[in-house]
Amino acid sequence: MIPFFLSIIKFACCLLFFGSSFVRAEVPPFYKMIAKEQSVPEALLYSIALQESGYSFYGKRKPWPWTLNICGKGIYLDSKKEAEEFLREAVQVGCSVDVGLFQIHWQTHHNNFSSFSQALDPIYNMRVGAHILFTQYQKSHDWFLATGHYHSPNNKARASNYRDSVYKILAKVIQ
Questions:
Q1: Which residues form the Transglycosylase SLT domain (predicted)?
Q2: Which of 37, 64, 90, 116 qualifies as a cystine partner to 55, CB 3.0-4.6 A?
């Protein structure tokens, strides 16, 4: 638990530099459940979902389960069925695809799913995202570093930019 507190200190430094424009967010129950199950900080898990698939509904930003990023273009679809069709088509033509609430990279992590449907199941996608985050934490024993590596494990600059964005969101989730 001490490494998480050190991450919060690092995060506070980032907040002083970057500021924040997000409205306070409450961690929903399913995120709390999965965070506990997967041994990751609940507010951090929810902040990653907001970063990855956040969409504004009536002035509030919420993670959206039918989000895909196909060949670098993010799209928010209306239903799981529609998202499955887009995902299937994108994979068939060889596009790079990130899937669901946690934007799980299909080409890297498809073995974690038995089907396109399972990849788009919000709870299952959340579990895989939490597992990826925890795996990165096990490598560094630092939630701050693990957050950047969740997105870009092999690119320090991209990992740093991503981490800063997530920690801006985290500031509002934990206040």
A1: 33-156
A2: 64
